Amino acid sequence: MDLIEHLTEPFLFQSALLQETAPALAAPCAAAAEILAQSLLQSGRILVWAGGPERALAELFLHRLWHGLDRERPPVAALRIEGEGEAALRPFTALAQPGDALVLLFARPNPTATALRTAAHENGIALVALGTDVDGTWFDGLAGGDVPVELPELPPSRHGELMLFTLDLLVEALDAVLLGDFA
Predict the structure, then answer these.
(1) What pLDDT digit, counting tens, does each position of 45-96 carry?
(2) Terminal CA-to-CA distance of the chain, rounded, Å?
(3) Which of 45, 83, 134, 146 has the fewest CB atoms within 10 Å, i.e. the most exposed one?
(4) Which of 128, 98, 121, 104 has the alpha carbon at shortest distance from 34?
(5) Is there a contact between 174 and 76 (Cβ–Cβ < 8 Å)?
(6) What residues make up the domain containing 65?
């Protein structure tokens, strides 16, 4: 196999993956955009926590919330909760207010994601969880108004690509809801 053929394979894989996952991810992304928009329209904020390599994706997500994607718009009120365990839980409980929304990003659920999910429920905070639940049990712990955006199990690099694409779609959908059009 030559290098060009080797490099072509990931493009073809990504294309097939997006076609395969589009029907399953479109509705949760739309529901998540509605929850985030409602939070912002009620003077709430979007709080974002990510574990592991997803921290870099959380930074990109925040950047896109602040600066937009393809069109000019004011930044939205969003900030990142950093750390693991108590280092993440304490700032969240100190900052979170009714009307806020929490976005959790993870490759696999971990104790911090679980603790933040519980704290969000205890404080009446809307929750959007984006990740992979291999055991199929973590998303079962979400409340009725929470939105699970469940990604398929993939190798780490492909998981990150799909998560970034999904986050971009979420920002695009949020823009459409807030700005009232689908330009």
Answers:
(1) 999 999 989 999 999 999 999 998 777 888 899 999 999 999 999 999 999 9
(2) 42
(3) 134
(4) 128
(5) yes
(6) 45-179
CA-CA distance, 39 to 114, in Å (whole number)? Answer: 22
Q: CA distances (Å), 126 to each of 30, 65, 71, 138, 143, in order? A: 15, 17, 27, 16, 9
- Angstrom CA distances, 129 to 36, 67, 137, stand at 12, 22, 13
Residue found by looking up tokens 């060009």 in the block:
4
Please check whether residue 62 lies inside any domain of the structure: yes
Whole-prediction pTM value? 0.92
Distance CA 24, CA 151 (A): 9
Helix axes 86-95, 111-122, angle to 10 degrees: 20
Q: Give the separation between CA 78 and CA 80, rounded to whole angstroms.
A: 7
* pLDDT at residue 182, rounded to an integer: 62
137 assigned to some structural domain: yes
Does the residue 24 lie in any domain?
no
Residues in the chain: 183
Tokens 């009446």 -> residue: 124
Domain-located, residue 73: yes
pLDDT confidence of residue 21: 86
The answer to whether the beta carbons of residues 35 and 177 sit under 8 Å apart is no
